[in-house]
Protein 1
Amino acid sequence: MKPFRLALVAVAFAFAGALAAEAAEIVVWHAYRAEEKEAFEKVVAQYNASPAAKGNRVTTLAVPYDAFADKITAAVPRGKGPDIFIYAQDRLGGWIEAGNTVDPIDFFLDKPTRDRFIPTTLEAVTYKGTVYGLPLNYKVITMIYNKKLVTTPPKTSGELVATAKKLTNQKAGRFGLAYSYADFYYHACLMNGFGGGVFDAKNRPVLNSPQNVKAMELLMKWFEKDGILPAEPSTALITSLFNDGKAAIVFSGPWFLGEIAKGVDYGLALLPTLDEAGGKPMRPWMTVEGVFVTSPSKNKDAAYAFAKYLTDLPAAKVLAIEGRQTPSNKAVYNDPQVARDTVLQAFRKQVDVAVPMPNLAEMTMVWSPATTAMNTITKKAATPQAALDAAQKKVEADIAGLRKRP
Amino acid sequence: MRFAVGLAVGSALAIGLAYALLAAERRQASSARYERLAVVRLRALTEAVEKFRVPSEEGLQPLLIAWKARLPGSPPARVVATQGIRLEASTFPQDVGDKAAPRRLEREEKPLFDQAARLRAAVETNRSEGALRAEEIEITKKPSGGLRLACPVERDGAVVGMVQMETPAASGRIRPNAAVALLSFAAPVALFFLLSRVAGERKGVLALLAVVLLAGALAFYALHSLRVLETDRRELETAVAEETRAQAAALPSVLAAVSASPAIHPETWDSDEFRRPRSLVKADGNLDEERLRHELGSRAAQAGKALAGVGALAMAMLAFVGFGGAARLGATLCKNREAYLYITPAILGMIVLVFFPFFYGIAISFTDQTIYTTSKPLSEIFVGLTNYAQILGDFHIARRAADGALVFNYLNFYWTFLFTVVWTICNVTIGVTVGLMLALILNTPGLALRPAYRVLLILPWAVPNYITALIWRGMFHQQFGVINQMIQIFGGQPVSWFEKPFTSFLTALTTNGWLSFPFMMVISLGALQSIPGEIYEAARVEGATRWQQFRAITLPSLKPALIPAIIISVVWTFNMFNIIYLVTAGEPAGSTEILITQAYKFAFQKYRYGYAAAYSVVIFLILLIYGTIQNRATKATEAI
């Protein structure tokens, strides 16, 4: 009997060994904290327990946000990184140009998967025609107003100015509208609304296009003529003004909601349309957080399977309701619980008119000249046209310095 | 005797290096030949694929089969289409039976599809940017020794797929003639021995003899090398022309076999990685003699320069050994064996952590490395002193604007340098003055609560300067900052601090002044307490006033402590990144940037690593010169 039992045990071990050998471990890096982290880990646990995992195990590692991008740049090309990482899409261009960091997933992407996303979010993770990741969630800025001061949120820019003027008292430090207009990221909603932008279709910078100049002129009208905006707006200032009830309307994103004081009754609404642009809506930039598969990963198939699960409806529900994220999955907004959430629905409506933030590597050289231009214009040290011309020249010179070949 | 050894060493070094260079060149030539033949085949096939209109359901497979039949010895090739993720045709041995083309690509073949997409993106990038930056033909070496090549397929101006080819491993390695090298090495040494018997012991004559012999041997070997290289090159180009002719001859029959007969362009097949024809082979398949001579000439010039460099090195070695340098070095090392052994671990550590990154930075500064070229070897992107010329040669500091006002170019190196110098001088002056004053006050005998004052006055230095900078920036806010509110309390007008360069400079100056006086105070306090009180007694008895006592006793005693502290402070302030970056961020419009923040922006916002490295080297040289001069002038490190 003994040899028979031994043989049985040996066979069992071999079988288990074979099974274990098939199971892969997928490492995921993310920068989530607090409730987002808990929701994310819940989804991971659900995946590991589900049959979709096919025996693969997903383990997560939370990396601090400040160091995240640098760690990816340093560790992944040398093979010391994860199989998947979750990060915003704006550094995508730089990583792709550096090489051996992010793997394109066009190969795995089929039409049903493509169709589950809000189209503009999929555009955001596409670089030069190739899709490099699956969009997980997005962030856009929208209008946040103090319900006590503003009963009906304005729908057009004309209404906005009228409402804001009534609530502005510069000497008392009260402003009808407050947002970080000197930050190019926030100004983009005006710029894109007029049809302007940073790069044209051929990836050439067009900072001084007539539409951009018009957008600047509108901003200066709000600041100078209408006087509804505070001077030198920093994010800390905007937050403190709103919490003190000294700012009626703020243009900001989901990160702002966590900083609003308990007593303030706030509401969200769509950014107003621009009368000066013929009634076209303000189009903020959206930052899309994508799930990216790394190039040196040994389990790309399994990694993609997890990425697909993460962006699918059940996972999106958990991330939306418990993680307070706004997923890129279209269908999740029809879920009854999510449909009742005014915050999520407001962002969903806003993202329909949002523009993906440019993910080119050259984008990093635009921020500094653009910020300089914004500061020069808002301090009235130059006209919008002149300042934008100067910024355009600098960006062109920088890009030429980067792109030239001997 | 020394000269004989020197000559031997120099000759060995020179001939050895020249031999190694020649071997490397020949190896490179043979692999280049291999690559170029493969590229000609690849592009010929790609042109056939592009011109072939697919009539039947079998698609491109018949074309590839005909190609393989008409050109025996062709390496296996496959055609991948991006639309539909398909393998259109393949002559690879594993793609038979149920894996025969045309079919959809399988999961393991994802790298093929990714490569096709990459080539498409490269072609589009080069077109839209108008510059040739991305590789359009990818050539990689297989681990087993052959090459894998891929070229994009264009139809109607758009890239629709790629042709990939795998060649087998190359055979044999050509080694240069060792006998000639040995002869070139041995001859001068032998001749030197013979002739030195005649010349006697006079150093000058021996030196001259050695130099002449070395030069002669080098010249001989150089000529030999150049001749070998030229022959090699000519053989390469002839082989490429032959291959082009062979392909051009066979291709029409291949195309005829699949009922297509469009025109082909053999002169475009021999091309570089951007699909630009090298134009050494004409349309009829013959070599363009004129261009070939031009090519050979320029290559010979390059080789000549390299050999000249080697020669210079050998001469230096000869001088070093011949005039006794090596002997002295050997004697020192031998005498202090133990000491050197003790410091070896530290030297190793410093080499890895300090010297290697430092010299690597210097190496990068001679290239134009950017984020796009980080994986290229440095020799390929070498640009010599261009970066330094751009930094130091740009004198456009200011110009007159339309209304006559002077407009400064804030990106200019000299403006930034001037600003940094002014920044440093102001800061160190404030720091030393305030620190010394406070130290003198704290040093008064019988001061109450002295420990409390000391702790409070160290606090600015103890708080992390990152936080300090951010708080001060908030305090200078135009409407809600504390500074402006205090000004308003005293009846003044609030200042928009970050609007003008001067006021912006004042904010950074205030912050750094607040941060830097504790350091000076501590140093001064320590030095003050080491001055014996009897000297002051004696001075008072002699009738000296407080000011005279200060000038004659205090200041000279403080010198050995203060001067090094000032040097350190100058270097720190010169490179004070945190304060400038966080308080003013260069506002307005980059006018309050210092050298180090400019370098940072060039590296991490504009991704121009080579330029930023050159900038950093310039900063280093400035500080080095300053430190040396200051040290010599004040003999600071000598005690009184």
Protein 2
Amino acid sequence: MIDTVKLTDAQKKSRRGRNIALGLVLAGLVVLFYVVTLIKFGVGS
Amino acid sequence: MTVIDNHDALGTGAEFRLSEASAGDFFELLKPRVMSLVVFTAFAGLVLAPGHINPILGFIAVLCIAVGAGASGALNMWYDADIDAVMTRTANRPIPGGRILPNEALGFGLILSCFSVAILGLVINWFSAGLLAFTIFFYAVVYTMWLKRSTPQNIVIGGAAGAFPPMLGWACVTGGVSIESIVLFMIIFLWTPAHFWALALFKMRDYGAVGVPMLPNVAGEATTKNHIVVYTVLTAVTAVVPTMMGSASLAYGAVAAVLGAIFIICSIAVWRMPDGDEKMAPAKKMFAYSIVYLFAIFSALMVDHLVLWLTASTGGL
């Protein structure tokens, strides 16, 4: 029998909040690198 | 799932703690109020620097500088968690409040430091990235780990970390430093002791309780008040230097002189405050005004720069 960790509601809620924040940051980084690439290529052309 | 083994790295016990830290708690690690000053002064450096930067790249530069400053704040909170827990002003910060574990703060601070420096280097230039890395090192290691607990001059030398942002903004545009950016640095560098010692005067019991050698605890109130007046005068004079150098107009010089005169009046009120004053109203007033002063000086510099630029571009009409 494997012991599993049961999350409380508060832990689930905080984990969801952290995941959403991390997702937004990652999405922001994707946009940032995309925009920077466009600008840098624009400058070089 | 974030499972945190808080107490038993060897796995000999069964005590686990699951993180309940919210994203807001992590944001609080970045010291957002300090960050707002960093954003503002870095933006000022960016605006005042000669030359041009793409507005989006400028935004990314300020973002990287802000995140780097926040990262150093997280590292500061990681190292100072023991004394933060004792002082009323800091007792509810995420680590002493029990919402974030010290190792989480350390990892968060280190990762953000690396990311902010790397992105600034890749996107803007490596000189400003190096300067940002040095700023983070200076605040987290030189100030927090070394000076803060060892000398009453901690805030004088350590204050340099808070003075770098306008120089960083400047370096993002020009790729280097110049005498004008050093003057911007000096305004904040000289302002910091007067600003912080005003706070230390009415919070000195807190600092005394945790053994941090702030000037009021080590040298006494009278010496601290003398130092506050000296640094206030030096700040007020330095703030007028851009006009003397010709990089700002006489109008800016007049505004800076008036703001500086009020700052000096505040410091004299602190100096005249009797030792052992319980309310310390002049010190609280000086602390509040010092924040307004710095925002006003950098705002005036930016407005002046904008006016000079508009005047030049319209041919002096």
